[in-house]
């Protein structure tokens, strides 16, 4: 078992924005549907898996996943770490690209580079990071995925039963760097200077990002970070709005 798979965590039970995965975001498509469609541009993973919960409201997630003809796994609603471990084991995945489904602006070019890098290194965890070495999963950008091995996740499960580490899949790894081989790749400095928030947690996020997505997608359906930033630079008032939202939604 040495396969690399993309695992996307998704559920309908968000407390701040219920059913955000399936609410119409662009046309009739929700953000999970959009993300799955965009991931067809990535040809380097052995499989794409959506890891949702065993709760009945998430039947809708499974129905959507089947429409996109990708794999689905159902597991514990609260123990997301275990859900990832069981999904990887079930589908024979030893190397995982973890994606959060509330990031419709995920950058496919960066995803490809992350997958290619993982093929040539011996690491437990690989992520993009800010200048202070914060993994981008802890930021508000919403552009990047992260790489982790199944073995590293299994080690976390053995080491701790603390709720925070079972809710946030990779948190234990990057907060205990002496226990794991970690590689952090810095994001461009000019990008870090911008107050960008493109992860969707609230209705305000949803509405702002609907407009941004429509604007960039209709110009280039295979848009990159550069396209998104170019649009934001041309609508600089959005940075101030995002800055306020970031301050009220600290990770």
From TrEMBL:
InterPro entries membership: Cytidylyl_trans, Nucleotide-diphossugar_trans
- Name the coiled-coil region(s): none
Query: Which one of the record's GO molecular function terms can you name?
Result: transferase activity
Superkingdom, natural source: Bacteria
Note the Gene3D superfamilies from the entry: Spore Coat Polysaccharide Biosynthesis Protein SpsA, Chain A (3.90.550.10)
Q: Which positions carry the signal peptide feature in this UniProt record?
A: none
Q: Does the keyword Nucleotidyltransferase apply?
A: no
Keywords from the UniProt entry: Transferase
Q: Does the keyword Transferase apply?
A: yes
Supply one GO CC term from the record: cytosol
Q: What is this protein called?
A: Glycosyl transferase family 2
Q: Which organism is it from?
A: Alistipes onderdonkii
């Amino acid at each position: 078992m040495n396969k690399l798979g993309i695992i996307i965590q998704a559920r309908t039970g968000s407390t701040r924005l219920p059913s955000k995965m399936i609410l119409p975001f662009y046309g009739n498509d929700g953000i999970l549907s959009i993300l799955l469609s965009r991931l067809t541009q990535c040809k380097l993973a052995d499989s794409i898996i959506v890891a949702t919960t065993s709760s009945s409201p998430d039947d809708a997630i499974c129905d959507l996943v089947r429409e996109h003809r990708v794999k689905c796994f159902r597991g514990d609603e609260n123990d997301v770490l275990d859900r990832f471990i069981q999904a990887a084991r079930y589908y024979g995945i030893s190397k995982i690209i973890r994606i959060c489904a509330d990031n419709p602006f995920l950058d496919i070019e960066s995803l490809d580079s992350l997958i290619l890098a993982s093929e040539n290194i011996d690491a437990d965890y690989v992520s993009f990071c800010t200048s202070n070495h914060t993994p981008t999963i802890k930021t508000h950008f919403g552009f990047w995925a992260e790489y982790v091995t199944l073995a590293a996740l299994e080690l976390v499960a053995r080491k701790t039963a603390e709720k925070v580490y079972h809710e946030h899949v990779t948190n234990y790894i990057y907060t205990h760097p002496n226990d794991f081989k970690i590689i952090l790749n810095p994001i461009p400095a000019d990008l870090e200077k911008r107050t960008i928030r493109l992860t969707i947690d609230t209705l305000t996020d949803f509405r702002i990002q609907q407009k941004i997505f429509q604007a960039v997608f209709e110009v280039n359906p295979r848009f990159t970070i550069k396209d998104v930033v170019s649009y934001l630079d041309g609508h600089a008032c959005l940075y101030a709005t995002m800055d306020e939202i970031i301050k009220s939604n600290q990770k």
